[in-house]
Design goal:
10 helices, about 280 residues, 7-stranded mixed sheet, binds manganese (II) ion, single chain, binds adenosine monophosphate, globular, alpha/beta
């Protein structure tokens, strides 16, 4: 069974509508799909309707931005009620910081010779309340200054690069509390992407565990085979369930298409076994 529990629509920084995401997943043979837009659940309703049309089991989700030890961590909430007021208020607060941040990113880029980045990024952001670095990257690619979104990150937008600005997102425990209040389970997304020391990772896992975190995203579009082995091992050690997802954003951009993340090691508990809405 093909499963994809991590992907994006134009409600955040993907390029397809939620319904188009579902249709593409269906075409790829996905049987169980979660839509996990950044800091917003507004796409889940239309995705759910479309999933019913195609006979796909749909899991409403979200990917919450969290600040931890000078790094940004992403926590997926799977099986959340998209209309839950506590979750909605929390996400609204996380989104509200994005505007000022995007203006600062544009100022930094301006200083480095990239003009009109605020208006440019807004043109690419179909949801003006959710301007992401991915929208800046697409704008810069459209200017012909760089060949790809990942190249823009490498030179301008990754931490420590000229267009990167520090930002305070949610606190780990509050993000998990919102997810739990909304009836969902919390998954630590793409852990191999975080630049943390061994002791910081131990602290992250301890706090995630204490706050009731359920699973680690072992199979991810941004994990290589070594990452997958390492994080499968961590899931076993800590007794976490395992999740899998492409982190698909856009057809020409994402290396891993919907449904194409590699299967989980068979000894791990797949997180969807713990999701009522997926059974
Ligand atoms: P933001 O939430 O505005 O900080 O943007 C984060 C998003 O930027 C991620 O969810 C990815 O979609 C994208 N992103 C981050 N790092 C990279 C990278 N190295 N290459 C391509 N896209 C990236
Ligand atoms: Mn993204
Ligand atoms: Mn992420
Ligand atoms: Mn993602």
């Amino acid at each position: 069974m093909k499963v994809d529990l991590h992907c994006h629509s134009l409600v955040s920084d993907g390029v397809l509508t939620p319904a188009e995401v579902v249709r593409r997943a269906a075409a790829n043979g996905v049987a169980l799909l979660a839509l996990t837009d950044h800091d917003e659940t507004a796409g889940c309703a239309s995705a759910e309707v479309e999933a019913r049309v195609w006979g796909i089991s749909f899991v409403p989700g979200v990917e919450i931005s969290v600040s931890f030890a000078d790094e940004t961590i992403h926590v997926l909430g799977l099986g959340v009620d998209p209309g839950d007021p506590a979750l909605g208020e929390g996400l609204q607060r996380v989104r509200s910081g994005r505007d000022a941040r995007a203006k600062r990113i544009a100022e930094e880029l301006e200083r480095h010779g990239i003009h009109g980045a605020w208006e440019g990024a807004l043109r690419f952001a179909k949801n003006p309340a959710l301007v992401s670095r991915a929208h800046f990257a697409r704008y810069i690619v459209s200017l012909g200054l760089m060949r790809s979104v990942s190249e823009v990150f490498q030179y301008y937008l990754a931490k420590g690069k000229p267009g990167y600005v520090e930002h305070e997102w949610a606190v780990l425990e509050e993000a998990l509390a919102w997810i739990h209040r909304a009836g969902g389970v919390a998954v630590l997304a793409h852990p191999a992407r975080y630049r943390l020391s061994t002791s910081q990772f131990a602290e992250l896992l301890r706090r995630f565990d204490e706050a009731g975190g359920t699973a680690i995203e072992v199979s991810s579009g941004s994990h290589g085979p070594d990452d997958m082995r390492r994080w499968a091992h961590v899931a076993r050690q800590w007794g976490f369930a395992a999740s899998m997802g492409s982190d698909f954003h856009a057809p020409e951009e994402s290396a891993v298409d919907l449904g194409a993340a590699p299967p989980l090691p068979p000894d791990l508990t797949p997180v969807w076994q713990l999701l009522e809405c997926a059974l």
